[in-house]
Design goal:
Layout: E1 9-14, H1 29-43, E2 48-53, H2 61-66, H3 71-95, E3 100-104, E4 113-114, H4 117-125, E5 129-133, H5 143-154, E6 158-163, E7 168-169, E8 181-182, E9 184-185, H6 187-192, H7 200-208, E10 213-217, H8 223-228, E11 235-237
Parallel strand pairs: 1-2, 1-6, 2-5, 3-4, 3-5, 6-10, 9-11
Antiparallel strand pairs: 7-8, 10-11
């Protein structure tokens, strides 16, 4: 087993649903505590960490659309919900002694910094975890696209996407017991087979900038650190 990290600077993509644990809504703070312990452990390896978090535990745009709201308004509501998640992660990390900054693509000066690329890079160089909230700041783009965009802007060596399963499958393994699991895929494989890893815009952005995507299970304790070292169970897209 490798003891040193394989990557110098990474972006961790967390879904809002991943913060719920076994709850149907909101936060399971035992889960948030475990996730932040893993982030802390990776920073102690000397790795620079940034995070993009979704909002599915609080608000999903399709819910608002079903209620008759237009897509742009629904997306802005979802962006604001990501700020709540970012602040929860920030506070939990700081209680563990990890310096953290939240930067929002939508300016909310009373609670966090506005996104400034050079400032974010400087924070990471100083060993601070930077949590990017509000997606890209624009409607019609997912937090997956925001993750790919921020990873490219920060010069990250990899995007680590934490999911509900231990990699990429040909179908949802919870619904299809015959689903095939992949250890490695090309960006083209993902796009051509419409594999539900990240949206197409995110995959293309990662491909064009040669940023590998490593998909692993959020539910395997210690998985984040293992993947950063190049160990453990994950699917790599490159």
């Amino acid at each position: 087993m490798a003891s040193k990290p394989k990557y110098r600077r990474v972006l961790l993509k967390l879904s809002g649903e991943g913060l719920m644990g076994n709850r149907e809504f909101g936060f399971d703070f035992d889960t948030v505590n475990r996730i932040t312990e893993e982030i802390k452990a990776v920073t102690e390896m000397g790795v620079q960490v940034s995070v993009v978090v979704g909002a599915g535990n609080i608000f999903r745009g399709n819910m608002a659309q079903d209620a008759g709201l237009d897509r742009a308004s629904a997306d802005y509501m979802g962006m604001l919900a990501t700020v709540i998640n970012a602040l929860a992660i920030q506070n939990t990390l700081e209680k563990k002694g990890v310096e953290t900054r939240v930067q929002s693509a939508i300016p909310i000066a009373s609670v966090c910094e506005s996104y400034i690329r050079r400032r974010a890079i400087r924070h990471m160089e100083k060993g601070r975890v930077v949590i990017f909230a509000s997606g890209t700041g624009n409607p019609f783009f997912t937090t997956d696209t925001a993750a790919a965009l921020r990873a490219v802007e920060m010069g990250c060596d990899a995007i680590l996407k934490a999911t509900q399963v231990d990699g990429v499958y040909s179908a949802d393994p919870k619904m299809d017991t015959d689903a095939e699991r992949y250890d490695e895929l090309s960006y083209r494989d993902v796009l051509m087979n419409d594999l539900k890893v990240m949206d197409a815009a995110a995959i293309v952005l990662a491909r064009d900038n040669k940023v590998p995507i490593l998909v692993f299970s959020l539910h395997n304790p210690g998985a984040f650190g293992s993947v950063v070292r190049g160990d453990g169970v994950f699917t790599v897209i490159r």
